[in-house]
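pasting for the record
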Amino acid sequence: MHKNLSHLHPNNFRNYLEAGLEQTPNRKLRELAEHGHPKIRARVAENAKTPAILLSRLAQDPSAEVRIAVAQNQAITPAIRLKLTADEDPNVRYAIAEDATVPVEILQILMDDEHPYVSHRAHKTFEKVAGMNKKAKKLSSRERLMSWRSGGLNDKKAYG
């Protein structure tokens, strides 16, 4: 998300940085989630430590940029993700459709999306997930355990 931030006032830049820090207290995150600049609210929405209740509120933000940041936060609840699946902005739905960690049921909903880019992306992600699951099932239980322990489920050895 660190796109060109040169237009941010120095005070806003400090707020932007603070909104992204995992050690920022919840009370400060709540304050920054109400900030007038959407880039700062989006930064709060990206923060993995932002509480679910705050992410739920940010999922209703008027700025699509903020809602996209919520959709890309791996800490969102299934209910928030499902709600964003029906967002009015196709870019928000696309952000969910390209995430290989979303449940298959969500991808199946998005595969029927009215917007062709969202639908296509959901199909591609579904194929990718299905392929990864198929390759992972080919591993023996011991191989999966060893791969998991080494943190290597994403490397080529784990998938054959």
